[in-house]
Amino acid sequence: MSQSTLRQAGPATSRPRRRGTRDATSGWVALLWLGPALLLIGGVVVFPAVALVKASLSEYSITGLRKGPAGLDNYRHVIEHPALGTVLRTTAIWVVAVVILTMLISLALAQFLSKQFVGRRFVRWAIIVPWAASLIITARLFTLLLDYYHGIANTLLVALPFVDQPVDFLGDDRFTLASIVAVGVFVSVPFVTYVLLAGLNAIPDDVYEAARIDGAGPWQVYRRITLPLLAPALSVSTVLSIIYVFNSFPVVYTLNDRNPGFSHDTTITWMYKLAFKSAEKDVGMSAAAGVFNVLLILAAVAVYLRVTRGATQENQA
């Protein structure tokens, strides 16, 4: 082989090697940047999920000590538990009622706060306070406000001429769940309102002006422009609300603490009672209920996304 041939072959063989070195280096740099996030996801999401599944497949003593594998017995006990139907019904009512009422009230509030008026900044600050406060403190405050004997709600009601006696908001089965739903809406509205307000502020004024020039009325503008352009914010806030309400423990547990049994428990408080407050005191059974709870949340979010995607495609067609 001549020297000229070797000179031509030299750069041709070294170029892919340099490219491969560059790719490997960029891969390590990307891993270095993503490393903290991956570690956080592994510690906060993956590890607890693995521990939950492992606990659901284990048998525990009444003091919480692991005795050994239990197979699928914990899942079978959860499915055969006599309170499961009541808990699922209460959870469905709780989630649907809180999410729908929160979205409607938040949409109206976001529309109101998007307008210019005197004291708007003060009103915006006032609305965010319930969300910034601790849920335990807020729930405990409502137990005092709705108390049968000393609550301010009953003091005001009894002062009315057509109310003869106080209402047991948190002890009477007719009012307990409705009271819990009202408090759940109260603590959920601020976050959703601010998400929708951000969505409204992102809609350009030019679009509204063009619609008015074309002769569109207020209802047509709202239905044809505001709602479609607000759809991404509505979708995100609804999904987050479903997950948040499903997993809301402090409000339901604090307001329902005085009632025995599982009549007004959701899946999240039922899990806690199975492990620490019920006759079973079974950590493995509680973990199995936790796995069912995660699957329920994923199914609810999947159904919502499928329905909204279908509606969006129909509107675009």
TrEMBL record:
Key words of the record: Cell membrane, Membrane, Transmembrane, Transmembrane helix, Transport
Gene3D superfamilies, per the entry: MetI-like
Membrane as UniProt keyword: yes
Domain ABC transmembrane type-1 stretches: 88-304
- What SUPFAM superfamilies is this protein classified in? MetI-like (SSF161098)
Q: Where are the transmembrane segments?
A: 27-51, 92-113, 125-146, 177-204, 225-246, 283-305
Topology in the lipid bilayer: Multi-pass membrane protein
CDD domains according to UniProt: TM_PBP2
Main localisation, per the record? Answer: membrane
One Pfam entry for this protein is BPD_transp_1
Q: Which family does it belong to?
A: Belongs to the binding-protein-dependent transport system permease family.
PANTHER family per the record? BLL4140 PROTEIN (PTHR43227), DIACETYLCHITOBIOSE UPTAKE SYSTEM PERMEASE PROTEIN DASB (PTHR43227:SF8)
What name is this protein filed under?
Carbohydrate ABC transporter permease
